[in-house]
Amino acid sequence: MTGVFLGVLVFFPFLGGLLAAVTGKKHADYRDFLADIVVVFEFFTAFGLFSIQPFVGEARLAIDGICGMGLHFRADGFRLIYALVAAFMWLMTTLLSREYCRGHANTNRFYLFLLLTLGATMGVFLSADLFTTFIFFELMSFTSYVWVAQEETAPALRAGQTYLAIAVLGGMVMLMGLFMLYHTAGTLQMDELLEACRQVRPE
Description:
By secondary structure, the protein is mainly alpha-helical. 77% of the residues lie in helices and 5% in strands.
């Protein structure tokens, strides 16, 4: 059952971002209210999982069939702390964004990628294997790029290009490293890697 809430933490912001963007085309106030609901719900879900984890144990969620390796998530001690901190940061940021975005253009886009980046960040923090970490880290890089270039001024666009280039190059290097690690150790599961590497090179 806790795995369902784990899935909500990761994927609900993606759905909320899309709904907020669609709603904002006609009603900006409804969009802002919907975004507030998403981040409040996200925070209380993270807080709830963090509160019950000592009693029910860690939550796990596996989605098979994604690129042959699947996506794997896990909510335990430090992962839940990171998720709770991220949820709180997005809660404060989103609540303050209404005033910050007043008079600015492209606010629909801002709210869309604000929530998409939240979902991607949750995917990074709650990933149980390095392949899932890679997928959501790249998603986070591309969605947060829009924040960098949000104002569309020349400096912002230059900064966005630099940011995107570093993200792409870093992602390619990371992917190559994951291929090599999987070939050597036979797994990318974080809780199996230490023992797998010991089998390759015994102490």
